[in-house]
Amino acid sequence: MTELSLETHGLTRENLLAIDYFLRLTRTLEERLVALFRQAKVIGGLYRSLGQEGESVAAAYALDYKQGDVVQPLIRNMGSILVAGAKPSDIIKQYMAKADSPTRGRELNIHFGHPDRDGFIGQISMLGDMIPVMAGITLAGRMQKRNLVGMAFIGDGASSTGAFYEGMNFATVQRLPLVVILENNGYAYSTPTAKQSAVKTLADKAHAFGCASEVVDGNDVLATYAAAKRAVDRARAGEGVTLIEAKTFRIKGHAEHDNQAYVPSALIEEWSAKDPVVRFEKALVDAGLAATSDFDAIQARVRSEVDTATDEAERSPMPRPEEAALGLFAGDGYWGKG
Amino acid sequence: MPVTTYVDAIREAMIEEMRRDPRVFLIGEDVGSYGGAFKTSAGMIDEFGPGRVIDTPISEVAIVGAASGAALMGMRPIAEMQFIDFITCAYDMLVNFTATSRYRVGSSCPIVVRGPAGGGTHGGPFHSLNPEAMFMNRPGIKIVAPGTAYDAKGLLKAAIRDDDPVLFIEHKFLYRRIKEDLPSEDYVVPIGKANVRRTGKDITIITWGAMIYVADDAAADLANDGVSAEVIDLRSIIPFDEEAILNSVAKTNRVIILHEAPLTGGAGAEFAARIAEKAFDYLDAPVKRVAALDVPTPYSPPLEAAALPDKARVLAAARELLRY
Lengths: 338, 324
Ligand SMILES: Cc1ncc(C[n+]2csc(CCOP(=O)(O)OP(=O)(O)O)c2C)c(N)n1
Fold this sequence. Notes:
The complex is a heterodimer.
Chain A: H1 13-38, H2 53-60, E1 70-72, H3 78-84, H4 88-96, H5 115-118, H6 130-143, E2 150-155, H7 162-173, E3 178-184, E4 187-188, E5 191-192, H8 206-209, E6 212-217, H9 221-236, E7 242-247, H10 265-272, H11 276-286, H12 292-315
Parallel strand pairs in A: 1-2, 2-3, 3-7, 6-7
Antiparallel strand pairs in A: 4-5
Chain B: E1 3-5, H1 6-20, E2 24-28, H2 44-48, E3 53-55, H3 60-72, E4 76-80, H4 91-98, H5 101-105, E5 112-117, H6 132-136, E6 142-144, H7 149-161, E7 166-171, E8 179-181, E9 195-198, E10 203-207, H8 211-224, E11 229-233, E12 236-238, H9 242-252, E13 255-262, H10 267-278, E14 288-292, H11 301-307, H12 311-322
Parallel strand pairs in B: 2-3, 2-4, 4-5, 5-7, 6-7, 10-11, 10-13, 13-14
Antiparallel strand pairs in B: 1-8, 6-12, 9-11
Helix pairs in contact in B: 1-7, 3-4, 8-12, 9-10
């Protein structure tokens, strides 16, 4: 046994390489979506998580999906649902609005997933609304004695909404097993965090609810995992809600159309140098836990999986227009039973 | 057959459904030990405990949102709005999350949102709402509005058992004014089926909620004048019983739509349009709507009475139609 120079918080080498796989899968899949977007094959908007993949993947990796845990991403947390088991081909089909996408062409991007069946639930666009919904999901889990934990992602901007406050307050009062990752990525569309909230640091919002809180460097994969794992363990032990502020940065514009002229280039340079994937891999190499060849092998696997998924999605048909009227209520059986 | 008030019919429906199905629970403000602002859930916490009769903070978004999340996980939540007016605070959650869930992503989200609605109790602008129209144009949520104790119990049971979200509009003016002999055995009233309260051949009055009694009174007066009025209690607004409406219009050739919500953009506009589209040939007179004035419901009794529809206005409308 070589002595580890890196605190890995109980993660084995296998776990660490799995995390690396999800980090690279997230980045590569997004790059593929950009290419498809430029070919006008991705129809809706495209919102990158470049530079933030670390916290999405690391936090979601702290959940136990076999136990029934549920993660709820926002638009920049595609990495979290890949960890939960979402298929890249399903994600590409969603973006391409295909008939055999999980929502059969009704919904956009990563707005899909059933909490019970899939271990993740897609958001609706109304920011903040998923916090009360996740409170209900974890409430049901407790009523059903399933000892499951929920994890909700929310942005610095979305944490200004009333729904966020109502959901956090209710979940805390009820001591629900909920972990909320508040990703402070500097901007909400064009609005800097200082114009969203006057608190010194966003984790201070926890004082309004009385829940536990923590601030973590969201670009430090292992630190984010550790903070999330502590919160998940607390939640599972019945100790209630934790609000984790993950400090990170949005390297790209709000969406593909946005050149983010409003962001000082010095900030982008500063944060690009703190890239979470590069940092994580360097730490593993420095600690002797992995070699560059491991990452090359992971990248080759990721590329081939994304290629296969793209081919599958490109071959899929578009929905038939007659289906537009179906599936509103249970009665027509469009979605099968239930 | 025990005599049951409208409000007790609602409580009995909840209790019987909670006994029948462990997935059913009640969530809302002051619903626990206090038993609800109108005592609709009185005593329920004693039988089911605080785990199934859940008191919440004053957070309508959280109530509807948490109910929806729990429903996705297989539960059957009943979310109470202390007054239905406060549904507007959770409007976003209900129309955007809950109502769209099945259509968007194929996820069944069977919650019931219920609460005291309607005017006539001097509740003023914020405690008198009739909310049906504001949900009709947001597909994905069923809407029922019982006017009798029998229907309140049977429709609430149907709503709880339904696989889709249901807005259950209970009229607080009726809570303790209406008492009926109810069957002691289990029954449901199917969602989407109207009830013909009174058959007639000269004119149809289509209505629901507390207005069914205004329609009854008007029909009795018309009978004294030798006019035979048919009264249709729609009971369900979404889906609504188009067949019952069209059949009656085909028979009487004259129709009044009576509702307690304001006239413009009210549910009656939809029914009138449907009749114009599908029964034009049967009409001997224009479709007439009798509804509240287009104002927030005022507080002072003379103002409130002037704002809400009443028998005199129904009779005036009927006489106008009978002149054709
Ligand atoms: C209630 C609501 N208002 C406005 C929007 C439009 N909108 C979409 S994303 C966004 C910015 C979100 O910022 P943040 O929550 O910080 O997340 P980020 O985009 O930085 O990941 C806005 C304003 C929305 N989706 N929902």
